[in-house]
Design brief:
The two termini are 21 Å apart. The chain is mostly beta strands. The chain is 14% helix and 38% strand. Strands 1-2-9-4-7-10 form a six-stranded antiparallel beta sheet. A four-stranded antiparallel beta sheet has the order 3-8-5-6, with no helix packed on it.
């Protein structure tokens, strides 16, 4: 197997201090050269996915949108979702960080992410999130 095609995922085993705060990282990861379809399925946590390169078609609860580099989408617990590569570009890469805790809904609402519109697109003409490395650096995941 080509090691460039492998997915990396890191899990957090929270200590009581983290869970008492009401918000903790559950897992994070990256998938370079993403090609397969994910879903339909649902999850029991909140997971923010960044499109680091390429395009991804994201579907949730009967709706869908095409997202590209710099855009993000959020998986909400209980929502049914799918996502799949949406371009011919060979290097579609997605990264994600999943969170748990009762504070997460209010945090997501504060940044205008909700189950009815669980994505954000980079405004045209702006510099997209160049890399999710900065996000991984902040989340404590290895680079």
């Amino acid at each position: 197997m080509n090691p460039r095609l492998s997915r990396e995922e890191y899990f957090n085993n929270p200590v009581p201090f983290e869970t008492k705060m009401g918000l903790w990282i559950y897992k994070s990861g990256t998938h370079p050269f993403f090609t397969e379809k994910v879903g339909p399925r649902s999850v029991g946590f909140y997971s923010i996915h960044f499109v680091a390169s390429g395009k991804v078609k994201f579907g949730w609860d009967g709706s869908s949108v095409s997202l590209s580099e710099g855009d993000l989408f959020c998986l909400f617990p209980g929502s049914v979702y799918t996502y799949v590569k949406d371009c011919e570009q060979p290097s579609t890469t997605i990264t994600w960080t999943a969170f748990m805790g009762e504070l997460m809904p209010s945090i997501l609402k504060h940044v205008d992410l909700c189950p009815e519109r669980p994505y954000r697109q980079t405004p045209s003409g702006t510099i997209p999130w160049r890399s999710s490395r900065r996000f991984r650096d902040c989340s404590g995941s290895p680079s």
